[in-house]
Design a protein that fits this description.
Keywords: Hydrolase, Manganese, Metal-binding. It catalyses: beta-D-fructose 6-phosphate = dihydroxyacetone + D-glyceraldehyde 3-phosphate; beta-D-fructose 1-phosphate + H2O = D-fructose + phosphate. This is Damage-control phosphatase ARMT1-like metal-binding domain-containing protein. The protein is an alpha/beta fold. The protein is built from 18 helices and seven strands. It has two domains: about 20-120, no CATH class; about 125-390, Uncharacterised protein PF01937, DUF89, domain 3 (Rossmann fold), CATH 3.40.50. Strands 1-7-6-5-2-3-4 form a seven-stranded mixed β-sheet, sandwiched between helices. Helix 1 (about 20-35) runs antiparallel to helix 2, helix 8 runs antiparallel to helix 11 and helix 12 (about 250-260) packs across helix 13 (about 265-280). The radius of gyration is 20 Å and the shape is globular. The structure holds 1-O-phosphono-beta-D-fructofuranose (F1X). 1-O-phosphono-beta-D-fructofuranose binds near residues 22, 168, 210 and 321.
Length: about 400
């Protein structure tokens, strides 16, 4: 049985590795993409230049002394990592801190006229307005006459594969959407997941969202279905309090997605109206907990968040980053049981994720062997495979 304390934490220090490429190539590309998308002034250009040289050849700089979240970041490890190379500290930490610094550089935290302006908004909007979104919404019309379980499965898969539409990922994986996923699902615990949400259920679903746009829309459709069909009585949608990892959803993105749904033709508008009503009467709420953007695994979640997860009927984590944080950003042997790495979690938990980083658990030895034989390491990061994992037997013990 693998020892969960000894699987190595992923760093970005190995040239040629996926994490190294993210730090050395993706982050500079994101800086340039954001710079080109806005008519920023000289101060912002200077700050972006400084961030570019810091993250490629410099060291991690501390936050300004008056930053409102300074104490939070100190509690999350800033004092330990400041002064070290971005490549030598845990990759999860390094990436998360990069996004914090990017917001700083463009004046997101103010004071000033750029306070609160999401540097990723143009990309999120473009995706929401894309013709592909129209096509996906139009496909709902054909679903309406199908039995409940069939609709539930279709919407679960919509939410799962919606995770491929992550904008940051596309910067370095153009074409992944068109590639044939073989086998598409490397693990499928959907029966367990549905058994946790029976049609007569009245419980609470916590959905920890990932990306805005073409991922958030199907997440919302799934929630609408579960509420309307009585599989849950309430849903809490956890989003980020600040823009993060390019396309991560914030409350503003939820508003955009809901407005998009209610304005759509056909069945989509009905889902949108059901959600709008559920927001008004409190059956659907959004949450933006500070820990949602922490550079740490969910095993380190604070007590208030643990209590919320403990009280939920099911907590669903969406996407690659949330998966890394749920199981720990470590190089697990892929056959490490999902139940084992999530044993600390205080309630029933599920993950819906396309594979876009090296972390994976819960595979059978045969699946791992077949994937390695067919693709080498590419299946881990290419975004062409996905998993549905769920576990109900938890002790909630801290690691
Ligand atoms: O969480 P998401 O949106 O599914 O994916 C986030 C991601 O694009 O960012 C990281 C690299 O920057 C990887 O974990 C993953 O590829």
């Amino acid at each position: 049985m693998p020892d969960i304390r000894t699987a190595p934490v992923i760093l970005g220090d190995e040239p040629g590795s996926f994490p190294h490429r993210v730090l050395a190539e993706r982050h500079p590309a994101i800086i340039e993409q954001v710079r080109e998308a806005f008519p920023y002034g000289p101060g912002q250009h200077r700050a972006l230049d400084e961030l570019l040289s810091s993250c490629t050849e410099g060291v991690i700089e501390p936050l300004p002394g008056d930053a409102a979240d300074l104490e939070l970041w100190r509690a999350w490890g800033l004092d330990e990592y400041a002064g070290r190379s971005w490549f030598d500290v845990p990759w999860l930490w390094s990436e998360s801190y990069f996004y914090r610094r990017l917001l700083e550089a463009v004046g997101y935290f103010g004071p000033g006229a750029w306070q609160g302006v999401d540097p990723f908004r143009p990309f999120k909007r473009a995706e929401l307005d894309a013709p592909e979104t129209d096509e996906e919404l139009a496909a709902l019309d054909a679903l309406q006459d199908r039995p409940e379980r069939e609709r539930a499965d279709a919407l679960l898969h919509g939410s799962l594969w919606g995770n491929r539409a992550d904008l940051g990922f596309r910067l370095s994986a153009e074409g992944a959407e068109a590639a044939a996923p073989v086998p598409a699902l490397v693990a499928d615990d959907s029966e367990t997941l549905w058994s946790l949400l029976p049609p007569s259920g009245t419980g609470t679903l916590v959905l920890v969202a990932d990306n805005a746009g073409r991922e958030l829309v199907p997440d919302l459709l799934l929630i609408a279905h579960l509420l309307t069909e009585g599989r849950i009585g309430r849903a809490v949608l956890h989003v980020k309090p600040y823009p993060h990892y390019v396309s991560d959803a914030t409350t503003a993105d939820v508003v955009d997605a809901l407005r998009r749904l209610v304005a759509a033709p056909g069945a989509a508008a009905g889902y949108g109206r059901a959600l709008w009503t559920a927001m008004a009467d409190g059956r659907l709420t959004t949450a933006a907990h500070p820990f949602s953007r922490a550079p740490l695994p969910y095993a380190d979640a604070p007590d208030d968040l643990r209590a919320e997860f403990a009280a939920a009927t099911l907590t669903v984590f969406k996407g690659d980053l949330n998966y890394r944080r749920l199981v720990g950003d470590r190089l697990w042997p892929p056959t490490t049981p999902f139940d084992e790495v999530t044993a600390y979690f205080p309630g029933p938990v599920a993950a819906l994720r396309t594979l876009k980083s090296d972390v994976v658990t819960g595979l059978t030895a045969a699946t791992e062997k077949a994937l390695d034989a067919a693709e080498g390491r590419h299946w881990r990061t290419g975004g062409t495979h996905a998993l549905i994992q769920a576990g109900a037997s938890h002790h909630g013990q801290r690691q």
